[in-house]
What does this fold into?
Amino acid sequence: MNFQTEKKLVQKFYRAIETSENQEISSVFNEYCSDKLLWRGFHPFNMIRGSEEVSKTFWQPFLKSIKKCQRREDIFLAGFNEIQGHEGIWVVSMGHLMGLFDENWLGIPATHKLIMLRYCEFNKIEKEKIIETAMFFDIPHLMVQAGIKPFTSQTAAHLVQPGPRTHDGLLFENQDEKEGKKTKEAIESMVSDLQDWKSFDHESLKNELKQSWNDDMIWWGPEGIGATYTIDRYASQHSGPFRAGFKDRKFVGHICRIAEGNYGGFFGWPNLSLIPNGDFMGMPSSQIPGEMRVIDIYRREGKKLSENWIFIDLLHFWKMQGIDILEKTLTKELT
It folds into this structure.
C-alpha cells in the first residue's frame, strides 16, 4: 500500500506549524485537520476535541513559551491500522521539539536556554485531513532540563534520547511491504510474551526476552524510569522491577498498531491497568487501579527487535493514585 499522499500531508502540516506565527496556528489546524479532530495528549491536556481547541489549548501556549521551535525528527513512518474500530492510515513522527524556553509553561519556570521536549505523534488521515491524533510528550524530562526533579528514584539512566543507531528511521519514501510485515510480526510476538506476564525471576525473564530481542537491545524509557542497554540490564533495571512493582495487571488494548520497513509501533488509551505494590519509582503502594497510556516505537534488526522508544504518561498514572507530580513538584520547588 502506498502512503505517500498521507505522509506528504503530515510533512506539510509540520512545516506550516514551524513557519507560522503563533496567532496563525488556528488557521494551520483549520487547513490540515478536521474541525472534529480528536486529540489525545499527556496530562494535564488529556483529550481535546476540535482543531480550534487543540490549537488554543496546547499549541499556542506552547509556542508562546518555546520560541523558535523546531521539530527534529528521528523516526517517520506510516501504515494501515487493522485494529477494529480504528482502521485506517496513520502517520507516525518521533523526535524532539527544540526551542528556546523563554516563558513559563505549565508553571515550569523558563530557563531562557535551549530545551528539547521528546515527543511521539500518531496522526490518522482520512479524506486529506487529520481526523485523530495521539501526541505523547515527556513533560518530566523537560522539568529536569529546567532544574526541577519530579521523581526521586529511577532504576535506569535518562540521557538525551537519540534516534536509531542505524540513522535510517525517516521513511519518507515507499518501503518494502515484506519488511514491514516482518516488523509487525516481531512486535506482535513480543506483545504476546508480555501479555503472559511470566515470572520476573532474572534468568527466566532473560530467557523470555531473548525470544523477541537482540542481545544488544536498547530500551529508551521516559524520565522517572530511564534507558537501559542489553537484555541483562533491561531485565534488572526495568522489566524485572516493573513486574515486581505492580499487581492485578490487565491489558486493555491498543488503538493503533502499524509497521513500515524496519520500524513500527503502537499506542493505547490506556494500554493497561495495574496497581502499584510500592517502591517502583520510589512511590508508595496503593489499592487503586491506575491507567498507563503508552506509545512504543521499535526498530527491528534481522528477526528480532533492537531498539524501543517509550512514552508513558506517568503524570496521569500517579495522579490517579492521588499524587499530582506536576503540582507537588512545582509547589515545592518554587516556595
Q: What stands out?
A: The radius of gyration is 19 Å.
